[in-house]
Write a structure and sequence with these properties.
heterodimer; A: mainly alpha; 5 helices; B: alpha/beta; Nitrile Hydratase, Chain A; 2 domains; two-stranded parallel sheet; 11 helices; 12% strand
Chain lengths: 117, 208
């Protein structure tokens, strides 16, 4: 399956006129690209991903493209699939978030934020 | 020069923390490769947000009253066009002239006005860019293919969590009577950061 086919089979994905994804914020492009790479590295089939995302989208609202938060739900679904694949425990992610938060607070404004480990 | 905010620390929103946590974990486990991730994202760079800033600049070029309002209160003037930052950031417009060129640094955390400018370029996050832009702006500009006459002063603006900058590039020659829509096509993201100039009409022809 090519990326193009994968995009077409992704539920309600906002696309531009050339069939490429559009984003409203940089983090959305990042989580999108991570999902593509996780799939390419063999973690899950794209059909599995489409199903997981569909489930998450069905949870609230009408799920239309215009509804704010498409990528918020994408992020929820991505965390869920990582958990179900045993890749990410909830505790692990919580610790990493705290570590990033601490790193940001320790970083002077304008400097790159780096995780010291 | 607004460089006196070293006492401020950086901040990441909850959602940015979640995304960074995932990236760290997946990198550690070998599922993703950050350079390849950056390359993939770079292909979508122009797809983040509409080119709202280009419309603002084109209107300022075409409409002197709007330009005055933009220079006086950029936040309000940008909001006139319906573009409002998510966190109510305060925007300041800085205008290039034949005597002064403006460039903006510091786009490392949530202080980058992506609702106006779109996705920041990946290279922008690198530490050398920022420190070098402050120390040797002319050298950095040259690397971007921008060489300015010696008598043009280069002003470097450092965004903060409270103030974000929009560079209004100089209007290219040979665009008299152009519509705002056509003018907006000449305004690149880099020209609104100050690492580029607006396209000249001939360049646009060859790009089309």
């Amino acid at each position: 399956m090519t990326l193009h086919d994968a995009l077409k089979s992704t539920p309600r994905l906002p696309l531009d006129e050339d069939g490429g994804p559009v984003f409203e914020a940089p983090w959305q492009a990042r989580v999108f690209a991570m999902t593509v790479q996780a799939h390419e590295s063999g973690m899950f089939e794209w059909t599995e991903w489409a199903e997981a995302l569909g489930k998450e989208l069905a949870k609230d609202g009408d799920g239309s493209v215009e509804t704010p938060g498409y990528y918020d739900r994408w992020l929820n679904a991505f965390e869920t699939i990582l958990r179900s694949k045993g890749v990410a425990g909830a505790g692990q992610l919580r610790e990493l978030r705290q570590a990033w938060d601490a790193a940001a607070r320790a970083t002077p404004h304008g400097e790159p934020i780096e995780l010291k480990r | 020069m607004p460089h006196n905010h070293d006492h401020e620390h950086s901040e990441l929103s909850d959602i940015e923390l979640r995304v960074r946590a995932l990236e760290t974990l997946l990198t550690d486990k070998g599922y993703i490769d950050p350079p390849a991730l950056d390359a993939l994202i770079e292909t979508y760079e122009t797809k983040v947000g509409p080119k709202n800033g280009a419309k603002v600049v084109a209107k300022a070029w075409a409409d002197p009253d709007y330009r005055t309002r933009l220079m006086e209160d950029a936040t309000a003037a940008i909001a006139e066009l319906g573009f409002v930052g998510r966190q109510g950031e305060h925007m300041v417009a800085v205008e290039n002239t034949d005597k002064a060129h403006n460039m903006v640094v510091c786009t490392l955390c949530s202080c980058y006005p992506w609702t106006v400018l779109g996705l920041p370029p990946v290279w922008y996050k690198s530490a050398p860019y920022r420190s070098r832009a402050v120390r040797d702006p002319r050298g950095v500009l040259a690397e971007f293919g921008v060489s300015l006459p010696e008598d043009v002063e280069i002003k470097v603006w450092d965004s903060t969590a409270e103030v974000r900058y929009l560079v209004v590039p100089e209007r290219p020659q040979g665009t008299d009577g152009w519509s705002e829509e056509n003018l907006a096509d000449l305004v690149t993201r880099d020209s609104m950061i100050g690492t580029g100039l607006a396209l000249d009409p001939a360049q646009k022809e060859s790009a089309a």
